[in-house]
Design a protein that fits this description.
By secondary structure, this protein is α/β, with parallel strands linked by helices. Helix content is 40%, strand content 14%. It is an enzyme of class 1 (oxidoreductase).
């Protein structure tokens, strides 16, 4: 009896397993799988592919010929007896030979009266236009030329810088490169200090001073003749009576300075 009951329990326990394992005969068959290509949307073109396949309007002749924006340089000078004028025009010619450089030359306003200039035996002013200090923000780079007055820039150039206060308030000249050149009566008359003390004007505007260095090489090292110029910038000697004119060595140093300044200024403007 016990064995029979035990056998019956085992059959009852095993029965659900057999039922669960048995698949109904009338269970519907699974539908055949549909190929993915038949149910999925065709792949969409990427934005880049769509843009490349869209016809683009042909470039105009002006767009095809337009190149990089030229570096716009303002060369600003003051000259009493013509020495700085000569250096300025030489500097300008050298700058214009550099690719991608556009130069506008200006003189600063004269603050001495015609009567005083006549007593100083100063020649007439050049035909170059007078600079408006409020237009300086139109330039990308600057070159300033001025004679010395006791080791500092002439008051005419200082008066010009004094009129740039509005640009200083706006920070309009910040980060723009500038270079300088000068003239003195003698070698010890301020060839270095005239430019050195003028750099303060650039510093307050946040401008970048680009010195000449010794790029001119031999013309700066020779001691066989008196000449102006220093690592601070090109220069010339006028003589005690102003009769001496810039020598070829001094002009060559100005040309080299102009070439190197153009290279640096274009890099800064890029």
């Amino acid at each position: 009896m016990g064995a029979a009951c035990s056998s019956g329990k085992e059959q009852l326990v095993d029965q659900p397993k057999q039922v669960a394992a048995t698949k109904p005969a009338d269970a519907p068959a699974k539908p055949a799988a549909v190929p993915a290509a038949a149910t999925s949307d065709p792949p969409k073109a990427s934005a880049d592919q769509a843009a490349s396949s869209t016809p683009q309007p042909a470039a105009t002749a002006g767009e095809q010929s337009a190149g990089p924006k030229p570096l716009k340089v303002f060369l600003i000078f003051y000259s009493t007896y013509g020495h700085i004028l000569k250096l300025a025009e030489t500097y300008k010619e050298a700058l214009e030979k550099e690719e991608g450089v556009e130069v506008a030359i200006y003189q600063v306003p004269e603050i001495l009266s015609p009567e005083v200039l006549e007593k100083m035996h100063a020649p007439p002013k050049s035909a170059h236009p007078v600079i408006d200090p409020h237009t300086l923000d139109q330039a990308d780079a600057f070159v300033f030329g001025f004679p010395t007055r006791f080791g500092m820039m002439a008051s005419q150039m200082k008066s010009f810088f004094d009129a740039t206060g509005v640009l200083w308030q706006k920070g309009a000249l910040h980060g723009k490169p500038a270079s300088m050149f000068t003239s003195t009566a003698s070698q010890g008359g301020g060839q270095e200090t005239t430019i050195m003390t003028a750099v303060t004007q650039l510093a307050h505007h946040g401008m970048i001073f680009v010195p000449a260095g010794y790029a001119a090489g031999g013309v700066m090292f020779g001691v066989d003749e008196a000449k102006g110029g220093s690592p601070w910038g090109a220069g010339t000697l006028a003589g005690a009576d102003g009769s001496r004119q810039p020598s070829e060595a001094e002009l060559e140093a100005a040309r080299v300075q102009a070439k190197n300044f153009a290279t640096v200024a274009k890099k800064l403007a890029a």
